[in-house]
Amino acid sequence: MTRSLHLVDVFTDRPCAGNQLAVVTGAQGLNARQMQSFAREMNFAETTFVMADQPVGGGWPVRIFTPARELPFAGHPTLGTAHVIRHALLGGRVERVTLALEIGLTPVFVERDTKRELYWMRQRFPAFGGRLPRRPVAAALGLAPADLGNQPIEMVSTGLPTLVVPVRSRRAVERIRVAREPLARLAASVGASAVLCFANGAARAGHQLSVRVFVDDAGVPEDAATGSSNGCLAAWLVQHRFLGDEAIDLKVEQGASIGRPSTLHLKAMRTSRGIEIRIGGGVVDVARGTLVAARLA
Predict the structure, then answer these.
(1) Same domain membership, residue 52 and residue 30
(2) What is the pLDDT of residues 161-214, one digit of tens each?
(3) Cα angle vertex 208, ends 84, 218, to 5°?
(4) Domain identity same for 91 and 201
(5) In whole angstroms, what is the distance from residue 167 CA to residue 54 CA?
(6) Which residues are catalytic?
(7) Count of structural domains within the chain
(8) Residue range 221-274, pLDDT digits in tens
(9) Mean pLDDT across the chain, nearest whole number?
(10) What is the model's pLDDT at position 295?
(11) Which of 58, 68, 246, 279 is the most exposed place for a label (fewest CB within 10 A)?
């Protein structure tokens, strides 16, 4: 039995940048052990499996695996998988693809301009959780307490609980050297799976913030582009009026520290229903092939 394998890069407009993603289509019949085994084999931040050849109950059933475990939700796998479904399974004829993830139905929309397509996803309304003091967090990041901002170091979740850490400068973000076990303990103490550190300013023109994200809990020491955690950042920025407003529309730079420069588009605003969040980015095809399912362990 064979299945199609698609390699794409997400949150970029060129190959071999952004965040890598492997997408297996026609994955029905694979069990969780086989999918986890193949995700370890790929060793990307995530690998996704499209579990049917058509939507079921309003969405395409998709499962997401890191090298270490299955996730209920993640950002770049959602956008990248929607791109593969749209082009490989639907011939590029639709402007919306809805994925059925563990957290529920997740729609992805396509926005076109003269040069590119951007994929956008709406994230769930955020939940704000526990806060941590600066000193132990700074120590776990290899920084001084004075390198961190005065705003709250806070857990936020739009599906993947993330500890959001404001840092005073882009240079300090670049200096981060993680002590992984202490940082993991701190994140776990407030129920976070990921740690996002950010500062004003970026190396590339047109970008407003610099971000680094660490997801050791999922077997990803540092991630190239993290849509889920940047959704949490967008909510945090609005909640604390970090940029002076309760609405944001900006570009974030991530991944430069690991040689995978990425651009994430963040839009969020406070409404009567809560903080509405949209995360967007480009997706680039890299390679296509075949997965020989019968040979998976």
Answers:
(1) yes
(2) 999 999 999 999 999 999 999 999 999 999 999 999 999 999 999 999 999 999
(3) 50
(4) no
(5) 45
(6) 46
(7) 2
(8) 999 999 999 999 999 999 999 999 999 999 999 999 999 999 999 999 999 999
(9) 94
(10) 66
(11) 58
- Alpha-carbon dihedral angle through residues 280, 162, 234, 253, given to the nearest 10 degrees: -60
For residue 93, the model assigns a pLDDT of: 84
Distance between CA atoms of 228 and 264, rounded to whole angstroms? 11
Name the one residue in this structure whose structure tokens are 């500890």: 163
The reply to whether 26 and 146 lie within a common domain is: no
Where on the phi/psi map is residue 162: left (φ > 0), alpha (ψ -120 to 50), or beta?
beta
| pLDDT (mean) for 30-59 | 95
Together in a domain, 110 and 183: no
Q: What's the CATH code of the domain at 258?
A: 3.10.310.10
**Paired tokens of 24:** 């297996």
Asked if 35 and 104 sit in the same domain, the reply is yes
Phi-psi region of 227 (alpha: psi -120 to 50; beta: other; left: phi over 0): alpha
Give the domain extent around 93: 2-116+282-295
